Amino acid sequence: MRLEGKVAIVTGGARHIGAVYAKRLAAEGARVVIADILDGDGVAREIGAGRGAAIALRVDVSKEEDTLRMADETLKRFGRIDILVNNAAIFLSIRRRSFDQISAEEWDQVSSVNIKGPFLCAKAVFPQMKKQRSGKIINISSTTALAGTPLFLHYVASKAALIGMTRALAREMGEYGICVNAIAPGLVQHEGQTAPKEFTEFQLKARAIKRLETPEDLAGTLIYLASSDSDFVTGQTIVVDGGSILH
């Protein structure tokens, strides 16, 4: 129970990796807010059945009014904000294609969620974290930003932007006791999403640990960054990919 008494917001927490993050935070004692454009009630009920505390909010992270409401509702329900996990992102719906085939509209859509979303969420929770003089913001980046993975430039660029944002926010927020770090996962396999076989085989060959990555592989690093164990760690990007990108 390393997060007993803490309150965590997980964007994109209604399914897949985000749901794993939310449940693991709750298992460590945090009260959890599942902020997602999708219905997160099922994950909240699952946490409640395990004697945890969670609520689900419908939030579009690309809209400032939604992120401000997210912070307000969290404070009304739980009274504080200790942890923000910027996990919401457009990824599963992206079709891999050459950069010159990506429309300006699609570029803007990905950027609005993957870049503007974390900015707006950090901005929304900052007043309360500043007041508390403590907080943990964890941005979910990707090893695609470090590898320069081709054929989805808008996604790669957005995840590279998160690394830069992590470093700059760490410098701005440090004086208030707020730590800002990022996790860069490799290709993660989870229920409902399967990568092309050739891409999976390439990933396995590149990894030092020769198996598929699961959402649970990321949970330990998330809890470390959310807990007091990392109180003197900020501005860092931690790669969790089985030893493919040695960063």
Please explain how this structure is put together.
This protein is of the alpha/beta class and 247 residues long. It contains eight helices and seven strands, in the order βαβαβαβαβααβααβ. A seven-stranded parallel sheet has the order 3-2-1-4-5-6-7, with helices on both faces. It is globular and about 45 Å long.
- The portion of residues assigned to helices is 40-55%
CATH topology name, in short, is: Rossmann fold
Largest beta-sheet details: 7 strands, parallel
Give the CA-based shape: globular
CATH class type: Alpha Beta
Work out the count of structural domains. Answer: 1
Radius of gyration: 17 Å
CATH superfamily descriptor: NAD(P)-binding Rossmann-like Domain
Q: Which architecture would the CATH scheme give at its second level? A: 3-Layer(aba) Sandwich
Descriptors:
single chain; alpha/beta; Rossmann fold; 7 strands; 45% helix
Summarize the structure.
This protein is α/β, with parallel strands linked by helices and 247 residues long. 45% of the residues lie in helices and 15% in strands. It has eight helices and seven strands.
